[in-house]
Amino acid sequence: MTAAPEPTPAATGAGRKRRSVARSAARLAAVQALYQRQMEGTPLARLLDEFHQHRLGREIEDEQLADAEVAFFDDVVSGTIAREGEIDALVAARLAQGWSLDRLDRTMRQILRAATYELVARPDVPVGTIISEYLDVAHAFFDSRETRFANGVLDAVAKAVRA
Predict the structure, then answer these.
(1) Residue 127 to residues 16, 74, 116, 155, 159: CA-CA distances in angstroms?
(2) pLDDT at 126
(3) Is residue 5 part of a domain?
(4) Can you tell me whether residue 40 is helix, strand or coil?
(5) What is the tally of structural domains in the chain?
(6) For 50-106, how does the pLDDT look when each residue is reduced to its tens digit (9 = 90+)?
(7) Domain containing 148: what range?
(8) CB neighbour class for 133 (10 Å; exposed up to 12, middle 13-18, buried from 19)
(9) What is the rounded distance in angstroms from the CA atom of residue 52 to the CA atom of residue 47?
(10) Is residue 4 part of a domain?
């Protein structure tokens, strides 16, 4: 009789927790990278390289950043940029009358874009996880009013694209 194989770290509770933390870190870093690209026009390859070399999992201002899932970070950043027109149309259609993407805070715009990318292109990630994770990112930058706004927009986008 052969022994059952040992579970891989990803199959254990601890492995899932590490992956969850790594994806959370990747999402926050993706929003930061998208913001940097918007502000500085950094080309995609240079942007990804800069984050790989100097930001993901590094210590910044005496604070150790969580290791991010690099492939997930790359997918969110690259995919959001590649599908920006489609994503912007989806978000803009769910804003209140008289509002446009240009009126939104630049950080909020990147949060909504990255989350919408995941809602559209990552069916492997549950809607609740996506919305919850990006609301956590929003909480890092905004008060509860803006976070509720993000929740409303992302919920409407999710209903449209994951119906």
Answers:
(1) 18, 20, 10, 9, 9
(2) 96
(3) no
(4) helix
(5) 1
(6) 998 887 865 444 554 557 889 999 999 999 999 999 999 999 999 988 889 999 999
(7) 13-161
(8) buried
(9) 9
(10) no
- Alpha carbons within 13 angstroms on the beta-carbon side of residue 70 total 12
Distance CA(76)–CA(31), nearest Å, equals: 9
**For residue 152, which amino acid is it?**
G
Rama region for 57: left / alpha / beta (φ>0; ψ in -120 to 50; rest): left
What average pLDDT score do residues 96-120 get?
95
CATH of the domain at 17: 1.10.940.10
Tell me what pLDDT residue 34 has.
97
The predicted model scores a pTM of 0.85
**Dihedral sign (CA 11, 70, 106, 114):** negative
Mean pLDDT of 105-109: 96
Q: Please name the residues in contact with 134: beta carbons below 8 A apart, sequence gap of 6 or more.
A: 27, 111, 112, 114, 115, 118, 150, 154
Q: What is the mean pLDDT of residues 135-152?
A: 94
